[in-house]
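Possible regression after last week's pipeline update?

I re-ran a chain I had predicted before the update to compare outputs. Posting the input and the new output here so someone can diff against the archived version. Not blocking, just want to make sure nothing changed silently.
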Amino acid sequence: MTNKLHHNFDVVHIEKNICDSIVGTLLDIQEQTKNHVNARYDLQRMAIRKYLHPRDIGKGRIEFSTACFSLNAHKKTTFMWCFKDAKLPNGSASNISKCVHVTNKKISGYKSHDAHFMLHYLLPVAIRSTIPHEVADPLIRFHSFFCSICQKVIHLQDMDYSEEEEVQILCQLEVIFPPSFF
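New output (post-update):
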């Protein structure tokens, strides 16, 4: 018997990686952010988005402007409380509020199943309430794409639409986030 499925991706683990990247970048978590100095130098080497290039301010210090997806302290707190205050149905996911550290502005220690639940239900709410619409809309469309491919039944014509939709979403996200995000 030959294997007709040549590539088999574990969607739940892909969702966890995506959730880590989004949350880490939006909250600017030191170990998880994709918006770091090297990413800004990548933009400079690629000669794109000059307003985000790092600037040398002397004495070995580097400064760079805030990106459109950067959150201030108040919006980070609002983002965190969307996860902290969420009331989840019993058995749907572990207690995500235990993974939320509002004072440190970090979300860590959640499992793949928790990331799946966060990506599908909690993250769109947190994003919509804290991020400008030009950034929030493609991210929410990105989440809806994952909802569509995680259904029990997927029709072939829906997959064609999802494929076209995903290409458009990725193009929009490439304009917003640094290349290291991908």
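Follow-up from reviewer: compared with the archived run. The beta strands are 55-58, 61-63, 100-101, 106-107. Marking as no regression found.
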